[in-house]
Amino acid sequence: MGFLQSLFGKNIDEKQTGGDKMVKIGIILGSTREGRVSPQVGQWVKELADKRGDAEYEIIDIAEFKLPLLGEPGLDASGAAAWSQKVAACDGFVFIAQEYNHSITGALKNALDYLREEWNNKAAGIVSYGSVGGARAAEHLRGILGELLVADVRVHPALSLFTDFENGSVFKPKEVQADSVNQMLDQVIAWSTALKTIR
């Protein structure tokens, strides 16, 4: 019996297909700017994920929540409670991370900072994009997630604005990227399932 099989008590190659034991994975769109392409990337990830039948996947768009700059007085932060509930209901996450000036977006950092315990002891994968595949944004995000007790997985689909997008705006991923997403989700599901036992 392998390590993961003994840990989870089942054959890890078997897909879980329904029931209340399925983990819930939020696919978080990390950009709110006009003209963003993150909805295209998020929808592609969800379509690949839904074919797996091993978890419940949901796109979570931070643009749909009123989350002004944290701590700035006099602004409408009425979306904070709904944001808290949405994140708390998830067992794991896939972050769609854009690289802006060698880091993640201010909107994503702000959304992360709004919460604490809702993130704790959960797993996450990162799908990034940018001129160098969003690698620098992903590395910054990993440090933030570590502080929030989110275990980020190793496999990291990195999408290039030059080879996976047409004119930098229409998402047309190379075929190999789908394999990378599925390998990442294998790890996210395993870790999310394991971490659920300690919450």
Structural account:
By secondary structure, this protein is of the alpha/beta class. The chain contains six helices and eight strands; from the N terminus they run αβαβαβαβαββββα. It has helices at 3-8, 38-50, 80-88, 106-113, 135-147, 175-196, and strands at 23-29, 55-61, 92-98, 122-130, 150-152, 158-160, 165-166, 170-171. The strands form two sheets. Strands 1, 2, 3, 4, 5 and 6 form a six-stranded parallel sheet that branches. It has a two-stranded antiparallel sheet with strand order 7-8. A hairpin with a 3-residue loop joins β7 (165-166) and β8 (170-171). The chain is globular and about 45 Å long. The two termini are 26 Å apart. Residues 1-18 have low confidence and may be disordered.
Instruction: Name the poorly predicted regions.
Output: 1-18
- Based on Cα principal axes, name the global outline: globular
User: Can you count the helices?
Assistant: 6
Total E-strand runs:
8
Q: Alpha-carbon distance between the termini?
A: 26 Å
- Tell me the quaternary state: single chain
Helix and strand composition category: alpha/beta
Q: How does the major sheet shape up?
A: 6 strands, parallel
Mean pLDDT: 91
- H/E topology pattern: HEHEHEHEHEEEEH
Quickly describe the structure.
This protein has 199 residues and is of the alpha/beta class. 36% of the residues lie in helices and 20% in strands. The longest helix has 22 residues, at 175-196.
